[in-house]
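Example 3.2
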Amino acid sequence: MKLRAYTPTDGQAVWQILEPIIRAGETYALDRDLSRQQALDYWLQHEAWVAELDDQVAGTYYLRRNQAGGGSHVCNCGYATSTRFQGRGVAQKMCLHSMQMARERGFRAMQFNFVVASNQGALYLWRKLGFQEVGRLPQAFAHPDLGLQDALVLHQFL
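Structure, written as tokens:
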């Protein structure tokens, strides 16, 4: 698997990964009717990367500071894996890569602000990689099938 910086030619491939996730409305607190441009604008606000597997874009992540000023030493990331490549270690590889990139950029910690409690696959992976739950937002996410779900805040020192 190869990880590289996002380029504008990746727009369609990244959209093909993001669209089903956004439309499902099960993991990201985003409007389910976002347009392609709105979704890419959100995803590409800061540094973005793509993971390639079998010469195809298999996943993408973004890396950005979590807060400005006194909180700028903590970063935040978001990850998305193509449904075709789930279960092949793409998310784990992207997370490990993002932690290395964060260290290289001088971040001292990584925080995930809003992990939906029903997203068990992501929670399993983040905990396996050393993230700790530092907060719980009761019923903060309206899951389209499961109803109100807690959202977790996860943190790891780098």
